[in-house]
Fold:
Amino acid sequence: MSLFDQFSLTGKVAVVTGGRTGIGASLARALAEAGARVAIAARDVEACHAAAIAITAAGGRAAGFALDVTDRAQIETLVADVTAQFGPIDILVNNAGVCFHRDALDVPDEEWHAVFDVNVHGLWYCSQIVGRTMVARKTGTIINIGSMSAFIVNRPQFQPAYNASKAAVHHLTRSLAAEWAPYNVRVNAIAPGYIATAMSPVDDPKFHRYWIEDTPMRRPGTPDELGPTVVYLASGASSFVTGAVLVADGGYSLW
Ligand code: NDP
Structure:
């Protein structure tokens, strides 16, 4: 097999949670370009359909599905629907996430739980439900979108629930990787720095001093810069890589 063939996802089926916009939309496009049939799943199903249509128009294969990752029943339905339409799931990208900027003393319980419900519990439900099918088939790759916030504390804004949730994502990644390695199911994470999306308003002047000037590369990342990374982790190109957290932060966490 040639070097580039190892990155091919031809014949694979991928699910990207939160794949309708931002980082998830770029990851979905990249997986489709590498040959996968891609299920784009988020709460705004119309936007999921639109993202899938854009991929199809570019020559890929994709479909949109309604999904709230905090609801186990919806995940079970998604797995059944994707399997019926595309075949069993080979690649799960746990990308759905939420973040609130709030000082610790002001964080209401509802907000704390909302962050953990999506970023940790939703990711856990998806991993367990899809992982069960992967373990049974003895094949699969799971890519969790973590964050550099798992090991640095962002500033000037505080976001304690988000930071703690992403630390949980990284360690759950390692835990599942160890447990499912004997079943040929690999679990890895990507830890992005500041990426220009609705979640990270990188052009807001109040953040420039800390977000951009403190990044050694002196710029935010773009969602499309993460596409090749997810294809690497999803494909045979990373066949001996599991439990890794791949940092893509322009060097932010170096100092
Ligand atoms: P966006 O806010 O642009 O997109 C978030 C996505 O998550 C949306 O598609 C949204 O769709 C989906 N989502 C939210 N809640 C749910 C839910 N309950 N069920 C299903 N889908 C849900 O964020 P980004 O693209 O920036 O972030 C994507 C991931 O990358 C997140 O995990 C984030 O933490 C992580 N990340 C982002 C960084 C950045 O700087 N942008 C840096 C590091 C990590 P809908 O509302 O339709 O459900």
User: Anything to note?
Assistant: The mean pLDDT is 98.
